[in-house]
Write a structure and sequence with these properties.
Helix content: 40-55%
Structural class: alpha/beta
Strand content: 5-15%
Radius of gyration: 20 Å
Shape: globular
Distance between the termini: 24 Å
């Protein structure tokens, strides 16, 4: 008997530290021995997806996160400073004053540089998690999605150094300087594809699992400044754009990340657990892409498409 297996593509969305939940998603795929033929990632989704595609298992990724958080590279980074600023409500009066001036300093830099964070800060984090190889050498077919600021179009990076491609995909507008590559000025892929489901289809996936780690739209925040209003407007735009993109997915996984700030990397354990929980809820739908023999050890499998 012949059974048909669709090519399974996983589209991992952007969301800063919330994207650590992607590790939990992929861990369930490991545990259930669900084959992954293609990974397409945006921003943090490109970083996690790239590491997995290179052959790193999810337990190795988790260990790297914990060691990174304890490293001087992270503790001396602007990312850590921004996290401290965001958490300033919990600080003493003296610490709040210090956070206030740090905040003003970081925001002032945006007026004179193309990013509030140093390129080196983000590159150091990417180098910490990814080997120095080309995309073509990944064990699983991998694509990173970025946006060309010149043309306004999405760019699917399918060759060349994986660290460079992921850096471009992670270049959050205003926070991280864009990356110049092959005549393009590349920034965060989430500008066009917060969850890159369409590129996954275009790259040959017959069954796409889209993973969204976007924040909850519900909010009780007060809008006390122009920045508050700007941030809220981008959240609303992202929410509605993402809904359109997720229509391309055969299964959508939404870990409950609430309204966690993008710098909350220290909540890695909780995020991984939540990613696992959300994926297990959708296992019955994902298994529809698998042939009968995968579960019961019978029959012959053929693919419906060419090589992924």
């Amino acid at each position: 008997m012949i059974f048909v297996r669709k090519r399974i593509g996983v589209a991992l969305g952007g969301g800063g530290a919330r994207g650590i939940a992607h590790i939990g998603v992929l861990r369930v795929f490991e545990q259930e021995r669900i084959p992954v033929d293609l990974i397409v990632g945006t921003s943090i989704g490109a970083l996690v997806g790239g590491a997995f595609a290179c052959g790193m298992d999810t337990h190795q990724m988790e260990e790297l996160i914990h060691s990174f958080l304890e490293s001087p590279t992270f503790k001396n980074s602007a990312i850590k400073s921004i996290k401290d600023i965001h958490s300033s409500k919990k600080l003493s009066v003296a610490q709040r004053v210090q956070a206030f001036f740090k905040n003003r300093y970081i925001l002032a830099q945006a007026l004179f540089r193309v990013g509030m964070l140093q390129h080196e800060d983000f590159q150091a984090m990417i180098d910490y998690f990814l080997p120095d190889i080309d995309i073509q050498d990944c064990q699983i077919k991998f694509r990173a999605v970025a946006t060309d600021l010149l043309s306004g179009e999405a760019v699917v990076l399918d060759h060349g150094p994986i660290r460079r491609a992921v850096m471009a995909s992670c270049a959050v507008p205003g926070a991280v300087p864009p990356v110049e590559l092959n005549g393009k000025i590349l920034s965060d892929g989430g500008i066009v594809y917060l969850v890159p489901t369409t590129p996954a289809k275009e790259e040959g996936a017959g069954f796409v699992v889209g993973v969204s780690v976007n924040t909850d739209l519900a909010s009780g925040d007060e809008f006390r400044s122009a920045m508050d209003i700007y941030v809220r407007s981008t959240e609303i735009m992202g929410y509605h754009l993402e809904r359109c993109r997720l229509k391309e997915a055969d299964v959508v996984i939404r870990p409950d990340v609430g309204r966690l700030h993008w710098t909350e990397f220290d909540l890695a354990d909780d995020l991984i657990s939540e990613g696992m929980r959300a994926t297990k809820e959708k296992l019955h739908l994902i298994r529809k892409a698998l042939p009968f023999y995968k579960r019961w050890g019978r029959g012959k499998v053929v693919d419906t498409q060419g090589p992924a």
